Amino acid sequence: MMPEGLTNEQLLKNISALLENARNKVVVAVNQTIVLTYFEIGRMIVEDEQHGESRAEYGKEQLKFLSKNLTKKFGKGFSETNLKQMRQFFLSYSICQTVSDESGSLDTIQQSSLINFNLSWSHYLKLMRIKDPNERSFYEIESYKNNWSLRELQRQYDSALYTRLSLSKNKEEILQLAEKGQIIEKPKDLIKDPYVLEFLGLSEKPDYSENDLESELIDKLEHFLLELGNGFTFVGRQQRITFEEKHFYIDLVFYNRILKCFVLIDLKIGELKHQDIGQMQMYVNYYDREKRLEDENKTIGIILCQDKSEALVQYTLPENNEQIFASKYFTVLPSKQDFINILNSDNGKIS
Question: For the chain, how far is it from start to end, CA to CA, in angstroms?
Fold first, then answer.
């Protein structure tokens, strides 16, 4: 008996998926070729400069000559500014990619072939402006792992994601951020303190309620998921739990696919109170006992508040706490230095 054929719609869907996959592969291949070519152009410019008697004057004339003739032969894209960027691209990315031959000299041809450029040229224009090579490497890895658009990369950099993560880590863990990006192995790895919710636009409102905050987060869910981090999926809002004829409502419920656990989020306007922590403890206990499956890990609870006392959090929670976390949130985007000041202050340290 012959198997039934596909419907026209199913056939169209399968062919469309195949073409979309092929198109994406072509885009990736083109991007990689362009970026590697620009790296090689930068290498050639730098190597030629090194043989000039007066590097500054020679370099200026060199770029002017190249720009004029390359534009004439290949069209747009080879202005003096663009050529300077290619030069800087090589200088930025060759520092950590040194390869020596047996004589000890740098083999730049071999060097460029060992570098994996997985992002677009626009991404690298942003990345090479980051002076700290560890920070630059972190954002490059996270952009590739999470398929960040240039806009998403810019937003994560502006919100000082690397700074927020690194200031709570030791030197070895910071190095791991630069080499592997953010690794999530335990509940605390998921947590940021503070969270930055500037995308909500609530800074324009002098007063807003917890319901307003929740509604805005749902309306901007894609942005909120980006801020939460890797592996989060949305489950629901105002999730009701009931026992002894009493009803309680959890503001937001997520699931993290990496840690395989529920993540409950409670929103608080103003300063955190010890009753808020007790309430979250009840929610977490309920999910662990009534919702969690045997192969899932323990539930995590995050209380987002405008302000908190570290001492209150420390003495309300058990010493070995790995399930409940209290984090501040901002509705405006602080400067990078403000982040550092906040995180280094007594009230800014992660509990």
Answer: 66
Q: Answer whether 105's CB lies under 8 Å from 97's CB.
A: no
Which residues does 212 contact at the CB level (< 8 Å), separation at least 6? 202, 205
Cβ(312)–Cβ(351) under 8 Å?
A: no
Best CA proximity match to 128, nearest among 152, 153, 107: 153
Q: Quote the tokens at residue 287.
A: 């999910």
- 113 burial type by CB count under 10 A (0-12 exposed, 13-18 middle, 19+ buried): exposed
Tell me whether strands 195-196 and 324-330 are parallel, antiparallel or unpaired.
parallel
Question: Which residues neighbour 298 within 8 Å (Cβ) at sequence distance 6 or greater?
Answer: 187, 261, 284, 288, 292, 322, 323
**Residues 6+ away with beta carbon under 8 Å from 249:** 238, 239, 240, 241
pTM > 0.85? no
Residues 6+ apart with CB under 8 A from 135: 162, 178
CA-based radius of gyration for the chain: 26
Report pLDDT digits (tens) over 229-276.
999 999 999 999 998 888 999 999 999 999 999 999 999 998 999 999
